Amino acid sequence: MSDAIADAKRALRAELRERRQIMSQTARDAAAAGIRVQLDALVERLGARSISCFLSIPTEPGTRDFVAGAVARGIRVLLPVTRADGLLDWSVATADGDIAEGMFGLPEPVGDVLGPIAVNDVDLLVIPAAAVDRRGMRLGWGRGFFDKTIGSMERCPPVYAVVFDSELVDEVPSDLHDQPVTGVVTPTQTIVLAPARR
């Protein structure tokens, strides 16, 4: 990655992180409710019976209510478990599953861990992002876990990134290893994006 792209990514992440930190709790709660409605509708539209999702941290658009509701409806939900080698293991979400702090302080399920290839069987990937542009390029938080996962899948299902409305932007800095997403889910809309051509 060139220094210019790395610097641009770092600057944009810092700005987005600051915006997220100053958001009011009322706005966060409203966003989480909207995300649940949008994701429920997306799962229904795609007929997804097995999905991957992430457990949101307080500054992210909330996904936890969506995950709990999906599990209650009998949808198989795989949650990511970070590994030191930069790959993701997966664990099946349960209604009463314990959550602990994983690598980088992120919430992760406690329980049986499936290997990285477990995600190959899902109908939909729901992933975090700092921002997504209208070409479908996603700016993550810089660790590359989801880019590696998407890039290694033999048959990649639809991939939707979850962001706040203001984080769907005209363009994000990207490099060759960055993977495009199928679409974006915000608290008010779900948009299918044209993936970038490689």
TrEMBL record:
<keyword id="KW-0479">Metal-binding</keyword>
<dbReference type="InterPro" id="IPR024185">
    <property type="entry name" value="FTHF_cligase-like_sf"/>
</dbReference>
<protein>
    <recommendedName>
        <fullName>5-formyltetrahydrofolate cyclo-ligase</fullName>
        <ecNumber>6.3.3.2</ecNumber>
    </recommendedName>
</protein>
<dbReference type="InterPro" id="IPR002698">
    <property type="entry name" value="FTHF_cligase"/>
</dbReference>
<dbReference type="Pfam" id="PF01812">
    <property type="entry name" value="5-FTHF_cyc-lig"/>
</dbReference>
<dbReference type="InterPro" id="IPR037171">
    <property type="entry name" value="NagB/RpiA_transferase-like"/>
</dbReference>
<keyword id="KW-0067">ATP-binding</keyword>
<keyword id="KW-0547">Nucleotide-binding</keyword>
<comment type="similarity">
    <text>Belongs to the 5-formyltetrahydrofolate cyclo-ligase family.</text>
</comment>
<keyword id="KW-0460">Magnesium</keyword>
